[in-house]
Structure formats: C-alpha cells, structure tokens
Design goal:
DNA-binding, homodimer, Tetracycline Repressor, domain 2
DNA sequence: GTCTATATTCAGATAGAC
DNA sequence: GTCTATCTGAATATAGAC
C-alpha cells in the first residue's frame, strides 16, 4: 500500500491524490478533468494518457484503497476466527473487523484515508450504473464472508433478517462518515468533542451492535431457531 | 397536497413529476433539462419559464413533498404528545412519528412517494452546496423538535449521544430507502419477500430502536443522569 | 404559455510535436 | 511521458415570434 499511495513524485500518483480529494469535495460528475489536472499540477492530456479517460480514473481512485481495505477486513476476521478455534465469533468482534477497520481508515487524516472514506460514503448513493457495478464487484466476496460469519454468530436470527440489518449498518456507517456537516445541522448546539472523527468510532460501534441485536420485528418467524431455550440468550450474548 | 401533486393536465405539474422520476433514476446532475423536457412532453424553454432554471426546478421538486412530509411528522408527534398528557413519550413512538411517516410515504408507489423518497435518500449524500443548504433549512425545525422529544424520553442518555444516534438513524433510513439494489448485492440469495418496500418498515424500525437504546459506549459519562436507580430502567423501557 | 432558434460555456477526448 | 492545440458534443440559458 505504501508504495502505491500518496506519491508526490510521479504524476500518476499526484493525479490520483487530487482526484480523490476533489471527488470527495464536489462529487464525481461535478469534478471535471480540467479542474483535476490543474490541482495535480499537470496537463489535461496527461490524465487521459494515464487512465484512459475519466471512468478509468474513477475506477483506479477506488481500487487502490478498496482492495487494501477489504483485504484488511478479511485478514482481521481470519485472525479472529483462528483465535476462536472453531467456535462462532461474537457479533461485536465481527462488527469490529468490518466497521472498525473502515473507521480507523476514516480517522487517518494524514494518509488521505479520511478523504477517501468520505468519498466512499457518498458514492454508495451514486446512481451511475458503472460505479454501482464496480463497487458490487469489489465488495461481493467480503460481504459474502461477513454475512456467513454473522449467520454463524446469530443462529437464532433468520438469515433474511441478518441481511437486512447488515444493509442498515452499511447505511448508518456510510452516512456517518460522509456527512460531517449533517451532524452539525442536527446538533445545533455545540458538541463538546474536539475531534468529531475520533469520537465517531465507539459511538457508531455501539449503535450498530444495538441495532444488530435488536428484538426481531413482530411476525418474524425464526427460520433456523434451534428447539432449545438458548434462543434469547444468543440474541443477547454479544 | 392533492391539488399540487401529479397533475397530468398542466405543464408545470408534468415537469415536476418527470423531474422527480429522472432525478431519482439518474441523479440531479446527470439529468439534463432537455431529457426532462422530453419526458414531460414539453419544450426546453418551457421548463426554464416555469422554474427560472434548473436550480429553481430542483428546489420545487423537493419543496412540494418535503413541506408536507415534515408537517405530517410534526402533526403525528403533536397528537402523540397530546395523548400522553404531559408524560414523556416512549422512544418507539417518537421514532414511529419521524421514520414511520417517511416509510409510509416510501411505500406509496402509486402517488410517487416511493420515487421521491428514493430521490431524497440519495440527495442526503449530495455534495452540492446549494442543495445542502436547502435541505438544512427545510429540516431545521423538525429535527430540533424531535431532538427535544428524544431528550425528554431518554433522560439518562447524554444529549450528545442522542444527537449522534439520531444522525446514525437518519443514515440507516436514507440508505435503506435509496438503495434497493444494494440489498440485492448483499443478499445474493433471494429474499423471500414479494414486496421489499413493504417489508422494510417493521425491520428498519426495530433496528433503529435497538440502536437508539444500545448500551452507551465505554467511557461515556451520563451528563444528566438522575441520581437514583431508574437509570437502567429508562434505557430499557421503550 | 409555448414554441424555434441560437448564444455561450464547458465537458471529455485526441492528434501530433517534443 | 508531457505538452499545445483542437475536435466534437452537450449542457444551461435566453431572445423573440406566435
């Protein structure tokens, strides 16, 4: 990762850094290749030379961070599962592996991780077809893996319910990371935190865990509930 | 509202309906005034005549639904508070007033409410300054009111924590409504629901309530906790 | 109020010199 | 690899006839 990120020397790296920053600030479409080239201190033609067009550039901006992020998520999860020696992981560990890694990246304001996570959060809502397909590809394996881990961790909760809740958790995280200003709007009064980005992680984690372990909605039948009395316990014991 | 929405007769209404649909589908910037005029069956110049430009049109698309939505939220909350005769409302009722109203609108596929809510969900992540300011204005009063209701309902939870959690809940809802396809990505296997939009509401509500009532993150001191033994109870009794 | 026609600006992309 | 210069298309917006 270190080789690939934040190269002040070569043009290619400078373009990617500038793109990341401007995309996060103004959005993908509102950022023109001209704007971007100027910010990177190079020529318009150069950006097209390196990435073959705007679409290629966007893809690369996401790829260089996302592959690392998702690999790291899997690494942490693997580590945890190895330590658990066959027993299902507790839900809070699974969330830690998925969201904790992302939140640590979002708190890294020097390496550009914060900028990228802001961009990523906004991009989840992007209607453009090509970017949705691209993100779907990048995420498919990771989501599948974490989904299965949650299934194992919460055997009393119907799988469909877990899928929905994973969806909700992704939304809460995206929005929380992308919208710092939205929080200020709600707060109105000053939040006492000096650094909101650092204060976010523990707060979001406990919120997500609460949502994941919430009582099931009325009329929801447990499809895989074991016929013993541990049902209630396993919904609490995270 | 009935007068203002879905007029097939007058051009102005047809433009608004077409704009709502196309904005939700392609995004604000990716939808051109030409595309939009064609879909509305009128001329490009006409749309500029009625709304004074693209920005004015966007503003009006949101205004006609948002003022109704937020007024309805306040109406329901007022009604609940009147019925409670001075006692603080239970958290689940407050969430019902805020999110329930929105979710019912999102489930209305005939009146265009579903389309609009999809648009709204995506727009929360919009980086454009003018649209953020506009939404901030439209929401300020409602958020303030619901914030205070939650403060009263959860006296043992620090106000800052409630603000954060309101923020998280807004994110979960936006994303849940905006991203139907994202869910399919996660699911991979088929969800048995015939109508995902209708299945959403109870699931999201229980998730949000679980998050709102989650145990406080470690190191979080209750700033207004009363010095009696009811603290634990009031965090559960929703 | 609705149209045709047009002004203006700016987007993404490329050819070709160096 | 990087530049200048330019092509081509599409965007918002408006002037002015009807």
């Amino acid at each position: 990762m270190a080789d690939e990120i934040a190269s002040v020397v070569d043009t290619r790296g400078r373009i990617l850094d500038a793109a990341e920053r401007l995309f996060a600030q103004h959005g993908l479409e509102a950022t023109s290749m001209r704007m971007l080239s100027a910010a990177a201190g190079c020529n318009l033609a150069s950006t097209n030379y390196h990435f073959g067009g705007k679409e290629g550039l966007i893809r690369e901006v996401f790829r260089r961070r996302l592959t690392w992020l998702n690999r790291e998520r899997l690494r942490v999860l693997d580590e945890m599962e190895a330590a658990a020696t066959g027993r299902p992981l507790k839900p809070h560990l699974i969330l830690e592996a998925f969201f904790g890694v992302a939140l640590r990246m979002a708190a890294d304001s020097e390496g550009g991780g914060a900028t990228f996570m802001r961009l990523l959060g906004r991009t989840y809502a992007e209607p453009s077809q090509f970017i949705r397909n691209f993100l779907a590809e990048e995420y498919a394996a990771v989501l599948e893996r974490f989904k299965r881990a949650l299934f194992r961790a919460l055997p009393a909760v119907p799988e469909a319910e877990i899928v929905w809740r994973l969806h909700f958790m992704l939304g809460a995280m995206s929005y929380a990371i992308a919208g710092t200003d939205a929080l200020k709007l709600i707060a109105h009064c000053e939040l006492d935190e000096a650094n909101p980005a650092a204060a976010l992680a523990p707060r979001l984690m406990s919120f997500l865990l609460g949502g994941l372990r919430a009582p099931l909605p009325a009329g929801c039948t447990a499809q895989r509930a074991k016929p013993d009395a541990k049902v209630r316990r396993s919904r609490r014991a995270a």
